[in-house]
Write a structure and sequence with these properties.
Layout: H1 10-33, H2 39-75, H3 93-147, H4 154-186, E1 190-191, E2 194-197, H5 198-215, E3 219-222, E4 231-234, H6 236-252, E5 259-268, E6 271-278, H7 300-305, H8 312-322, E7 327-332, E8 336-345, E9 355-356
Parallel strand pairs: 3-5
Antiparallel strand pairs: 1-9, 2-4, 4-8, 5-6, 6-8, 7-8
The structure holds adenosine-5'-diphosphate (ADP).
């Protein structure tokens, strides 16, 4: 038990003196009555009484305050994370008050965090239900129409089944995206880091999305010709997913006849920065801070028409953060957007390693 000689102990000193005076007078009186009073003996006894009284009061008060506090905290069931150690208890009211204030501040922050999480959880569940409802109702509509007789009509039957299947695809797409985010967030997913040529990876993604781009007459270009391989270190498959999501978005939200330009630049000595720039519809500033949140869409109806779930950028952010890298966005409405992300730069293609994927903050 810590003995504390701070100012608030002054009352113990005061009571020690009072108690010592009373006991000295009492013992002197008693000795006088029985005829054994001795002044020298009393002079020796008084300091002893002083020390004994001080220690008894000090320990007694500590124990008393400790018991009171223990009772108080167990009463409000808050002891589980504010461990009350005997050593911490003192009659110094200043330090007691600051302890309790610190405890209350911690609890307040905890409650606020829980409230935000609860709101987030409610929003998330609401969004999942909302996103699933539309394709499910559409599928149900087609099935009911088929059951009501359209099944007999060969042409209608095929068309309706195809449309129902398209909505099943949409559902699967949402579920897969959610699954990807959950795995990235949970930290179970591992990054399979390899050294790869980022220029080649982007060229592959261009090939993959060429047909989609050509439907809107959008050109997929590099800012210049790259003759040398540009070695990067990361999970190539996941970086490819990032590139697909960003380039696909530049096509989805790009204007007819527009361009998507990709640049790979040296950011620092050990980092690349990959910039994906389009001259499409752009995004106004107020949307930018929330753009990477799950299910966040600038134009809900427009994005849904494009087949978007609002999860693409959230996946991008999770993958980039898992690599310990950064993602940036700059955009001007009617002018276009630029999404850029950093990547570890490396000199040769010999090293290969696997590191654990760390969970990142929810958006
Ligand atoms: P979605 O599946 O809706 O495309 P994302 O998470 O990929 O979801 O994107 C979120 C929103 O950000 C989109 O709904 C769109 O409004 C906006 N957005 C993303 N990329 C671009 C872009 N290149 N140009 C304009 N808006 C974009």
């Amino acid at each position: 038990m810590g003995v504390n000689f701070r100012n608030s102990n002054s009352f113990i000193v005061r009571y020690t003196i009072i108690l010592t005076l009373i006991s000295t007078v009492f013992i002197s009186g008693l000795l006088y009555v029985i005829g054994g009073f001795n002044a020298a003996y009393m002079l020796l006894l008084t300091p002893l009484l002083l020390i004994t009284n001080f220690l008894v009061l000090r320990i007694g008060v500590d124990k008393y305050v400790f018991k009171l506090l223990q009772h108080l905290y167990s009463e409000v069931s808050l002891l589980e994370d504010f461990e009350l150690k005997e050593g911490r208890v003192s009659t110094d009211l200043k330090s007691l008050t600051s302890d309790i204030e610190e405890f209350a501040r911690g609890k307040k922050i905890e409650i606020e965090t829980l409230k935000i999480r609860e709101e987030y959880r409610k929003d998330f569940l609401g969004n999942v239900a909302h996103e699933m409802k539309t394709p499910l109702f559409t599928i149900q509509g087609y099935i009911l129409t088929l059951l009501d007789g359209a099944l007999q009509d060969k042409k209608v039957r095929k068309r309706y089944l195809e449309r129902a299947n398209k909505n099943v695809d949409r559902l699967l797409h949402i579920v897969n995206d959610l699954d990807t985010i959950t795995r990235l967030e949970s930290g179970y997913e591992k990054l399979n880091r390899t050294v790869f040529d980022i220029h080649k990876l982007i060229s592959n993604v261009f090939e993959m999305l060429e047909l989609k781009a050509s439907k809107k007459d959008i050109k997929l270009l590099f800012d210049k010709s790259y003759s040398e391989p540009l070695w990067a270190n990361g999970d190539a498959e996941k970086v490819e997913q990032v590139l697909i999501n960003l380039i696909e978005n530049s096509i989805k939200y790009g204007d007819q006849g527009g361009t998507t330009e990709v640049a790979i630049e040296k950011f620092t000595k050990h980092k690349w920065i990959v910039r994906i720039t389009d001259n499409g519809q752009g995004i106004s500033e107020e949307h930018l801070p929330r753009l990477f949140e799950r299910f966040y869409r600038v134009d809900r109806s427009g994005s849904r028409k494009q087949g978007g779930s609002g999860l693409g950028l959230s996946i991008v952010k999770h993958i980039i953060e898992a690599h310990g890298e950064r993602i940036y966005v700059e955009s001007t409405p009617e002018i276009g957007s630029e999404f850029s992300f950093t990547l570890q730069k490396t000199e040769n293609n010999s090293s290969k390693s696997t590191i654990e994927l760390k969970a990142s903050s929810p958006e």
